[in-house]
Amino acid sequence: MQCDVCQQKEATVFLTQIVGGKMQKVNLCEACSKNKGVDDPTGFALADLLSGMGAAQEIEKNPASQRCPVCGFTQADFKKTGRLGCSTCYEVFAEGLEGMIRNMHKGPEHVGKAPVAYLRSRQIDQKIKTLQSSLQEAVAAEQYEKAADLRDQIRRIEAGLEA
Amino acid sequence: MKLTEIIENSGEWLKGDGPHRNIVVSSRVRLARNLRSKPFPGWAKKAERIEVLKIVKSAVEQLPEMEDAYTENLEALSPLEKQVLVERHLISREHAAKGVGSGVVMNVNQSLSFMINEEDHLRMQAICCGLQLDKVFAMINQADSELEPMLDFAFHPQLGYLTACPSNVGTGMRASAMLHLPGLVMSDQMNKIINSVNKIGLAVRGLHGEGTEAMGNLFQVSNQTTLGEAEEEIISRLNDVIVKIIEHECNARQLLLQKKPVTLLDQIGRAYGVLSYAHSISSKEALNLLSVIKLGTDLNLFPDENRIVVDELFIETQPAHLQKGAHVQKMSADERDTLRASLIRAKLQVVPKPDIAKIATQPLGTTENDE
Question: Which of A23, A93, B219, B262 has its CA 20 to 30 A from that of B149?
Answer without folding.
Answer: A93
